[in-house]
Amino acid sequence: MKKPLIGITTFIGKNNLEIPKRFIDVISSEHGVPVLLPEIENEDLIEAQVDSIDALLLTGGDDVDPALYDQDPHQKLGNVEPERDQYEWKLIDFALKRDIPILGICRGSHMLNIHEGGTIYQDIYSQIDGTELIKHQRNDSKEHFTHKVTIKKESKMYDIVKQEEIFTISNHHQAVDKVAHGFHVAAKTNDGITEAIESTDHAFVIGLQWHPEERYHTDESSQNIIRSFVEAAGK
After folding, report:
1. Which of 32, 73, 136, 163 has the largest count of CB atoms under 10 Å?
2. Residue-wise DSSP of 188-231
3. CATH H superfamily, domain 5-233
4. Residues 186, 197: contact at Cβ < 8 Å?
5. H-state helical runs in 123-176
6. Is 205 in contact with 101 (CB distance < 8 Å)?
7. End-to-end CA distance of the chain
8. Which residues lie below 8 Å from residue 129, measured CB to CB, with a gap of 6+?
9. Are 214 and 142 in contact (CB under 8 A)?
């Protein structure tokens, strides 16, 4: 298998772009070549970025601007990065057009769903009524499993992890609400929150609410997810 180039989106800081090193480590551990994608505005150059990679990894970060899915901002909406939203929107445009593998993690899964016409909860704790929500946000940065996720057997995610239940690290106050056309739900938590979506029209386009990169070195299901993504990129 060739060593595929994996484009990884970056966080936008005040004066710099940055990325948690774990994203780079897990891709390189599976013999993928990490390529950091800086936010730019020129659409031709964004297309050239996508043309140069074999797969796209959409990382986590701040909340997505609700204007993208035609909603007013909720009181509990966190920080937004409109420039990053617009940039990643175009990345997804070109990546879907080329049909290269896409893995969206946390915020990345929200961007995928919104791009294809879905919506998200801006704050699950205040927008979901009548449901006993489990804890989806951590109070610290320690590596630990936060909750179980149930995988649908008729899904690509089940083919990847080969388990109906896994434990995951999760840290979010938003989640997929209306699932986009052309996607289906592949995993949920016991409180009904959507934890994974996947395209029915593409070979490997998956959005995960949890963070396989955070437990990759100690958890088999996380390893299988990253490995399958890199292998798909190398085909």
Report:
1. 32
2. E-TT--EEEEEESSSSSEEEESS-GGGSTTT-HHHHHHHHHHHH
3. Class I glutamine amidotransferase (GATase) domain (3.40.50.880)
4. yes
5. 124-127, 156-161
6. yes
7. 7
8. none
9. no
Per the CB < 8 A criterion, the answer to whether 81 and 144 are in contact is: no
68, two tokens: 């993208």
Residue whose entry in the numeric block shows the structure tokens 């409180």:
191
pLDDT, one tens digit per residue, over 49-100 is 999 999 999 999 999 999 999 999 999 999 999 999 999 999 999 999 999 9
The total number of residues shown for the chain amounts to: 235
Answering whether pTM is above 0.70, one says yes
What's the one-letter identity of residue 177?
D
> pLDDT (tens digit, 9 = 90+) per residue, 163-193?
999 988 887 789 999 999 999 999 999 888 9
Q: Find the Cα–Cα–Cα–Cα dihedral 113, 168, 202, 183, rounded to 10°.
A: -40
User: Are 4 and 233 a contacting pair, CB within 8 Å?
Assistant: yes
DSSP 117: T
